[in-house]
Write a structure and sequence with these properties.
The protein is an alpha+beta fold. The protein is built from 10 helices and 17 strands. The protein has one domain: Chorismate synthase AroC (Chorismate synthase, AroC fold, 4-Layer Sandwich), CATH 3.60.150.10. The protein is 30% helix and 19% strand. A 5-stranded antiparallel β-sheet has the order 8-7-9-15-10. Helix 1 crosses helix 5 and helix 5 packs across helix 9.
Amino acid sequence: MRYLSAGESHGPCLVAVIEGLPSNLQLDRGKINQQLARRQKGHGRGGRMKIEKDRVEILSGLRFGKTLGSPLTLTITNQDYKNWQEVMNPYQAPEKPDHEEENSCGEVLTRPRPGHADLAGSLKYHQDDIRNVLERASARETAIRVAVGGTARQMLDRFNIAVYSHVVGIGGIRAESMENRLPEQLHRLAEESSVRCADPVIEAKMIEEIDRAKDEGDSLGGVFEILVTGVPPGLGSHVHWDRKLDGRLAGALMSLQAIKAVEIGLGFEAAALRGSRVHDEIYYDENANKYFRKTNRSGGIEGGLTNGETLRIRCAMKPIPTLYRPLTSVDMKTKKSLQAGVERSDACAVPAASVVGEAIVAWEIACTFVDKFGGDSMEELKAAYETYLRMIARR
């Protein structure tokens, strides 16, 4: 499976075309919209989320609620576009007012923000106006990724594969290890938290830290964890580098705006430990006819393949580069040193990023699942999967 997305932050809409979804997958648009609503929540979000009420429309590839096997087209309307129609006009530039206000949405932006794609993108694409870069580089693009992931989640649901997330750190505030809690429990507690933290005491401290940074015109990053349950052993490959599942997951998650590190299982911690404290010993359950491990330090992946345990992935998100007390930059037109430009932004988007991370992981798992079991319809996919489960139960 694959998809292509398009659209700018303040353009008319965001669009994705998905190819390769099996036919006869029952899709509930309401469930996709639930995921979009989850992305918009979180303490520290900016004013844009008060404008947008993201809803997906399905333009092709679906009939009577079931996929046809043809490309599925998803769109999300940008409600804020009505305020930007002149600035984002695809055909002609607006007339420049006699006395244009500084930082108005219509000004030509020439002050790149440190930590953003502004400067490198403007150089690469030979742009005089940074808006031509930041509109696509914006994390607004993640809304359509959540919609794409929402379709993948509904396919995984048919095979009892679930994807969860929770926030384990914001700024310098970190929650204690929660490895002994069930993923479902962590998910329930995270859904009740405005920062998606499963620890109420730490949640309060995170909120205080976000409010402090916002008052100071600053921003915060953090760490979130993604858990995937019900994954069978054998997804991915040890044979080819580009089919290793850990590589695919890490690459996909690193493509999420502001993510600077991804670790699976113990991750960086494993580098400081001896092998006896890193690798998961293997046991066999004769009643269940399956292999299992009493620990999950590998995070559910060994040699590029799932091993049947829960997938455990953590992502580190840097602070958002738009600051209301901007850092020093250079005007690309005059080459003079001055403060960077300011765009409307969040003080902290880690909770929202965790929801986007779920969608990204759901898509990658679904793609790997279809690669493994094949078939053009859900019926073929299910039959191949059930045959595989019976086969490995005898091994």
